[in-house]
Amino acid sequence: MDDLTYSLRQLCQRNRDGSYTTQADRMRSLSLAARQLREAGFRQMKASSLKGKHAQALLDRWQGEGLSSGTIKNRLSHLRWWAEKIGKAGILPADNIQLGVPERRYVTNISKAQELGTGLEQITDVHVRMSLQLQAAFGLRREEAIKFQPGYADRGDHIALKGSWTKGGRERTVPITTTEQRDALHAAHRLAGTGSLIPANKAYIQQRHVYDGQCKAAGLSNMHGLRHRYAQMRYETLTGWKPPAAGGPDKAQFGLSQRLVDRYARQQISRELGHERLTVTSIYLGG
After folding, report:
1. Per the database record, which ranges form the Integrase catalytic domain (predicted)?
2. Closest C-alpha among 122, 188, 127, 199 to residue 154
């Protein structure tokens, strides 16, 4: 392991910001950056050596490889984290447009919603099956559904998610509004008791591997689509009409009152999904 990779690993271990997945993604991204800097001829670097020329060299390579703006933005966010932790936050401008990275395109009217269907019957691990049911019922991410502790989360009329379960470490709540949600919570209580949906003899990463393997064997791919289904169902409940991604009317057809209802619904769904930006809801609902 070269000095830069080693010192970046140490930096990450000293600053454990965000969930396990966030930390792991950051470490992978920074290790890749270290290798690419070495390939670009920058030798004998340490984490504290980062300069603007290094960031520009990486950006030039990523753009030359034709990576999507979303991928480049994720990598830049990791570079900014690195720069901030070594006291050089000014190396990179906060605005990606200044770096020539276009805005991410969020609007799409192609639905990515998925249902569990008969695939759930092929899941043999009871904890994985329960995690999938919670994902469908509450629009949870994979990590949130695996780490879920019903004894902590169930607050009667809503569930509360710990920051250590969520992306970015942001706590949030999701309302309980359907019998499907309440039934899923009852089942989670019976299975996990006062614990989580990670069996007592496993660590999170081990159970995540079990989850991935079980889903693959059952033919269930991209279970993030369960979040899309949740968002679209919530939108229809809150507005009274289907979202554009599910065949509903386009916002261009709305009158003033419909626009207000649409905006309220998107704000509510954005909070329930754990997103800070309202524009992200277009991924789930369409434009």
Report:
1. 104-232
2. 188
As a whole number, the mean pLDDT across the chain is: 91
**Residue 124: what pLDDT?**
95
SS (H, E, C) 85-154: HCCCHHHCCCCHHHHCCCCCCCCCCCCCCCCCHHHHHHCCCHHHHHHHHHHHHHCCCHHHHHHCCHHHHE
Question: Within 13 Å and on the Cβ side, how many CA atoms surround 286?
Answer: 20
pLDDT score at 108: 59
89-145 pLDDT, tens digit each = 988 888 777 777 766 555 556 677 788 888 889 999 999 999 999 999 999 999 999
Q: Are 204 and 198 in contact (CB under 8 A)?
A: yes
Residues 61 and 59: their CA atoms lie apart, in Å, by: 5
3-state secondary structure 140-203: CCHHHHHHCCHHHHECCCEEEECCCCCHHHCCEEEECCCHHHHHHHHHHHHHHCCCCCCCCCCC
Cα 51 versus chain centre, distance: 29
Q: Is the pLDDT of residue 40 over 80?
A: yes
Say how far apart CA 266 and CA 238 lie, in whole Å.
9
Which among 117, 113, 164 has a CA at the least distance from the CA of 139?
113
Could you say which DSSP state residue 247 is in? T
CA-to-CA separations, 72 to 79, 95, 132, 133, in angstroms, rounded:
10, 13, 30, 33
**Contact call for residues 275 and 281 (beta carbons, < 8 A):** yes
Say whether 220 sits in a helix, a strand or coil: coil
User: Tokens for 281?
Assistant: 């809801």
Residues 6+ apart with CB under 8 A from 189: 150, 151, 154
| pTM for the predicted model, two decimal places | 0.68
